[in-house]
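Comment thread on ticket #2218

A.B. wrote:
> Attaching the input chain for the structure job we discussed in standup.
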Amino acid sequence: MGAIILFPLGRTFAAFLVGISGSDSYMGYITRGYETQGAQTFALMMVMMLILLLKYGKEIVKSDEQKVLQLKIFSLAVLFTPFTWIDPSLMRVVQYFSIFMVSLLPSIITQIEYSNRNNGNTIYQIVLLFFMFVTLSRQAYYVFFWEEL
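C.D. wrote:
> Ran it. Output below, let me know if you need it in another format.
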């Protein structure tokens, strides 16, 4: 849950990591001053996955011990998610680690179904509808860099 605290402190955390890296070449990402809203839907999805993994993580590891490494790697993705609010190009750092979410999601759904067979499907459908609503409610137009709005 400490990763959630990093959202308001993302720039400070990134500066700390740049400082201990020994190279100032990455400081430009922090000081650019992008006016970005971050990847709000992606960040919300990561936080929801974190909450579900905190709740069902032990059961997932009991059923498949090979998931331990995937849980640790996904934790890195959650840790780096606040960077997307600093500079959108830092999303690539999160994407290196968040790919393991694809293999963890079926395990989470399975654990939800075993623990609450009736409520599991309902919760899944509510979350899916919520993400669909958030995504579709935006009035952002997608254009390529050579096109004008």
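A.B. wrote:
> Thanks. Noting for the ticket: Helices lie at 2-5, 10-21, 27-31, 40-63, 67-80, 91-98, 101-115, 117-137.
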